[in-house]
Structures are given as structure tokens and as C-alpha cells.
Design brief:
- It contains nine helices and 13 strands.
- The protein is α/β, with parallel strands linked by helices.
- Strands 1, 2, 3, 4, 6, 7, 8, 9, 10, 11 and 12 form an eleven-stranded mixed β-sheet that branches.
- A hairpin with a 2-residue loop joins strand 7 and strand 8.
- It starts with a strand and ends in a 10-residue tail after the last helix.
- About 4% of the residues have low confidence.
Length: 304
């Protein structure tokens, strides 16, 4: 059975611009995505799917082409596939505004991978570090995931996912008995030096121990028809002429749960998430990665 790591990387061309792309962040210039791939393969995943813009394929082959020489934990070769997120996958009934340059968000991204995902999958952001234990936990959940009506999510504490350097967007979750009850997108969360957190968009304080989604989802292939229906409904009713409208996975998952069509198990990881939302985060992330290499959590080079 193929268990895929699906990496939403279509934004790399902008988010990994400048020194992030040229220099990398790890001791041997690794980018954060390479840590996710390394952790997933040692957990048992045997396929990697990159969701990218078509013009990024040459860059991705240069960065991660070595994966084709890797052996998966099951003894077989690691399979690598590409899915392209562009306007060619948007249904003909929708007229794309002339001023729109960006794709339509994470639902659109995952939907673009429907033809290359042939088993359970873990869906992640390209520019986040999720931790070794998160992939082990998710893999164990995916190999037992029922074919229909079920999904999984690794949850993180809000206080461990915010930045002092500016606001962040997070999926704020309500969890009961290990099951996700709701997820709400909070688009402007600010962390203050005293540890308090505030949703500036709604002018309210947030509990630092609130569980949040960091786009670490586990799905069966049966999610794709639901994605298609939800995305087409989004285009008909919400997108309109809004050149910034996005169709987001946490919102779609919440919609499916409230309709009684999806039950989501919330998994917990012993590791800490970190990412580079702002350039000022770079030094901190580099130091954390160096500590992980020094402790033996990672080999000297991920590309060996």
C-alpha cells in the first residue's frame, strides 16, 4: 500500500525567495521541507507528492531529486510524483478575474493531487517543521484509517506556534474526547512578550493552551470527491470577483464535520512545531535545527 506524504509547496516560489531558497536553513543548507520528508520516510511513508506550480519543477528536482535514489522503510524505492496547482484545474464554469495571480488555497491544492494520490495521505505545508514524533503518530493512524468518513489531524498548542515578530493565521480547534468538534480560522493572532495571545481580527484573548491546526492532516482517498464538491460550491458562491478569495482545508473540514460526514481524530505529538513566518524567525529556527543534529535526532546531512 502506498502511504503518501503530500507537500503543499506551490507557494515556495515566493515564500522561499532570497536567502531561504539559496542558503537553506539546516547545517548543510537543507530547507524545512527536507526534514518533513526525512521524518516521514523513517516513519514508514513510501511516496512523496509535491504540489507545485508548473514552473517550479526544475527547482524541485534540483532540491529533492535525490529522493529517487532513496529506499523506503518497506524495502521498495521511494516513489515521487508531482501535481501542478494552476488555473488549468479550475472548472470552466468559473470566470477567473483578470487581476488574479494566485491559486485558490489549500483545498484547491490538495484537489490538484487527486490523480497521483492512490492511498491514505498526510497533507502538510512545505515551510513548517512538525517534529519526528508527529509523522510516526500520523503514519500509525493512516494505516488503520477507515476508507470513508474518517480523518486525522495532529494538533499543536497555540503558544508553541505563534511569533513575536508579527501576526499568524491558525485554525483554532475545539476538541472533546480526542475528536475534533470544530475548527475556526483565526487570521491575525498576535503573541506578546508576556506570553498572552490575542486574535486581533476579533479583538479577543486566546488561551495559550488552545489546540490549533497547522495543516497536518491525514485523509483517505475518499476525501477527493468531497473536496471537489466543496471547491466548486466555493467558486459558485464565495469566490466571485474577489482576487484574494481562498478555499481553505480547515474550513472545509469543519464544514464536513458539521454536516455529519466526517469524524476527525486529533493526534498529539511530543515534538514542538516551528516555522519561518517572518525573516526574524530564521536565526531561531536555524539554532533549533542545529541542536537536533547535534543531539543525533538527524544525521549530519539529510541528503546522504
Amino acid at each position: 500500500m502506498k502511504v503518501s506524504l503530500v507537500i503543499m509547496a506551490a507557494g515556495l516560489g515566493s515564500r522561499y525567495g532570497g536567502s531561504k531558497q539559496v542558503d537553506g536553513i539546516g547545517p548543510h543548507h537543507e530547507i524545512l521541507m527536507e526534514y518533513s520528508i526525512h521524518d516521514a520516510l523513517r516513519a514508514g511513508f513510501n511516496k512523496v507528492v509535491f504540489i507545485i506550480k508548473p514552473e517550479m519543477k526544475e527547482m524541485m528536482e534540483r532540491l529533492c531529486g535525490y529522493l529517487r535514489n532513496k529506499t523506503a522503510k518497506d524495502g521498495g524505492p521511494v516513489e515521487v510524483a508531482y501535481a501542478f496547482q494552476d488555473f488549468s484545474s479550475v472548472p470552466d464554469f468559473y470566470h477567473i478575474p483578470a487581476e488574479r495571480t494566485k491559486p485558490f488555497g489549500t483545498v484547491h491544492a490538495l484537489l490538484c493531487a487527486a490523480d497521483v494520490v492512490d492511498g491514505p495521505c498526510c497533507v502538510i505545508n512545505a515551510d513548517d517543521y512538525y517534529g519526528i514524533d508527529a509523522y510516526r503518530t500520523m503514519y500509525e493512524a493512516l494505516v488503520k484509517l477507515p476508507a470513508d468518513g474518517h480523518a486525522a489531524m495532529v494538533g499543536y498548542l497555540l503558544k508553541n506556534t505563534a511569533s513575536l515578530h508579527g501576526t499568524v493565521s491558525r485554525g483554532v480547534c475545539t476538541v472533546e474526547d480526542g475528536k475534533l468538534q470544530s475548527v475556526r480560522e483565526a487570521l491575525k493572532i498576535q503573541l506578546y512578550p508576556d506570553g498572552t495571545l490575542k486574535d486581533l481580527a476579533e479583538d479577543r484573548e486566546l488561551n495559550p493552551d488552545t489546540i490549533v491546526s497547522m495543516n497536518f492532516w491525514g485523509f483517505a482517498p475518499s476525501i477527493f470527491p468531497a473536496l471537489k464538491e466543496y471547491f466548486e460550491d466555493f467558486l459558485r458562491n464565495e469566490a466571485g470577483d474577489n482576487i484574494k478569495a481562498e478555499c481553505l482545508l480547515p474550513v472545509m473540514v469543519d464544514h464536513q464535520m458539521q454536516a455529519g460526514k466526517l469524524e476527525v481524530s486529533v493526534l498529539h505529538s511530543a515534538d514542538k512545531w516551528f516555522g519561518m513566518t517572518y525573516q526574524e524567525d530564521r536565526a531561531t529556527v536555524a539554532a533549533e535545527l542545529q541542536k537536533l543534529h547535534d543531539s543525533g535526532a538527524y544525521p549530519e546531512s539529510l541528503r546522504a
